[in-house]
Amino acid sequence: MFTGIIQAVGEIIQTRPIIDHGNNGLSLCISTGELDLSDVKIGDSIAVNGVCLTVTSLIIGKFTVDVSQETLSCTEGLNQTGMRVNLEKALRLSDRLGGHLVSGHVDAIGLVVKFEPVGESYELIIRAPDSILRYLTHKGSITVNGVSLTVNQVEGNEFSINLIPHTLAMTTLRELAPEMRVNLETDMLARYVAKLLSI
Which of 141, 139, 138, 115 is nearest to 126 (CA)? Predict the structure, then answer.
């Protein structure tokens, strides 16, 4: 479980195919940036651009994870060497919940429609697939590339977000541009409520 509050920006510095019983996944080596790994052990979870992955080895300033073909097929950016990624260690029960409850399981891939400055902030508009539209609401929560954000407005299949300077400074969202694809995870509470109402 995560909060969507990014702790550091790292970089995928190596990708290596996994040759194991027909598995077409990848092993990733990720530099940690300023992420403190002193309390991380093999088997722990780290969210990488919003995707929950299991640490398979630890090296000074780096860690490795394995990504299945299934995960690669429904996420964006995990197969790209040189990709800068948002990093968050798994939530501890004693931690503050500064964002919202995030599982690290990507629901869909969105398309950036607009990313433009508005005063000191930036307006981000993303086109979402129909499959997640019912979970998007004004002032509701959404995770974009692992970052917990608040939806400002929903119009048709597009939703807008206001990105403050601090969020831009601390995450890779400042590198977005129109036509880029992003990992989206909807608010899990909204999903549970929708499921209960459909019974």
Answer: 115
DSSP 175: G
CA atoms within 13 A on the CB side of 78: 31
Q: What is the pLDDT of residues 93-107, one digit of tens each?
A: 777 777 788 999 999
Given this model, what pLDDT does residue 189 score?
A: 83
CATH class of 8-89: mainly beta
- Of the candidates 85, 103, 77, 14, the one whose C-alpha atom is nearest the C-alpha of residue 48 is 85
Residue 100, C-beta contacts closer than 8 angstroms, at least 6 positions apart: 3, 4, 141, 143, 148, 187
Residues 32 and 63 sit within 8 Å (Cβ to Cβ): yes
Under-70 pLDDT residues of the chain: 21-23, 199
> How far is residue 73's CA from residue 199's CA, in Å, rounded to a whole number?
30
- Fold assignment, 108-198: Elongation Factor Tu (Ef-tu); domain 3 (2.40.30)
The span from the CA of 186 to the CA of 194, in Å, is: 12
The amino acid present at 10, given as its one-letter code, is G
Q: Which residues contact 31 (CB under 8 A, 6 or more apart)?
A: 10, 11, 13, 61, 62
Instruction: Give, as one character, the DSSP assignment of residue 30.
Output: E
Local structure of residue 33 (DSSP, 8 states)? T
Question: Taking all residues of the chain, what is their mean pLDDT, rounded to a whole number?
Answer: 93
Domain definitions of the chain by residue range: 8-89, 108-198
